[in-house]
Amino acid sequence: xxxxxxxxxxxxxxxxxxxxxxxxxxxxxxxxxxxxxxxxxxxxxxxxxxxxxxxxxxxxxxxxxxxxxxxxxxxxxxxxxxxxxxxxxxxxxxxxxxxxxxxxxxxxxxxxxxxxxxxxxxxxxxxxxxxxxxxxxxxxxxxxxxxxxxxxxxxxxxxxxxxxxxxxx
Length: 169
Prior knowledge:
Elements: E1 8-12, E2 15-24, H1 28-36, H2 38-41, E3 46-49, E4 56-61, E5 71-79, E6 83-89, E7 96-106, E8 109-117, H3 125-143, H4 161-167
Antiparallel strand pairs: 1-2, 2-8, 3-4, 4-5, 5-6, 6-7, 7-8
Helix pairs in contact: 3-4
């Protein structure tokens, strides 16, 4: 499969970010569940443990090898099923990632807009952009009856790294 980079540079909540859109022929509640329920997330990206009511959960990526360390997702804003703002921090690392998910439904079709900040280092865009195109395409596969395992990271990175780096230069 040949992939096409879909992210765009935007300022989200005052942060330099890459934003992506995906559209689903599904109600907003179903798409919200696909991006917030641990068992649904586990089909395409990872799983969380803990109690979201505490304001944070532990999240582990499931498709990046065993060495991927759990990260803490702090819930900054949660307005089901329309908006979720998270800050991801890996213990022992200096940087954090700000992520925003916004869902809008119209006539049974839901648009998910996902964004992630690039932090203080614009060079991070070279990994962030292709990575989220990859994972969001896995989400689409999982939610449309496809096999997320058929989405090949090699079709995204390093193929689209230059495209995303050029957004921030």
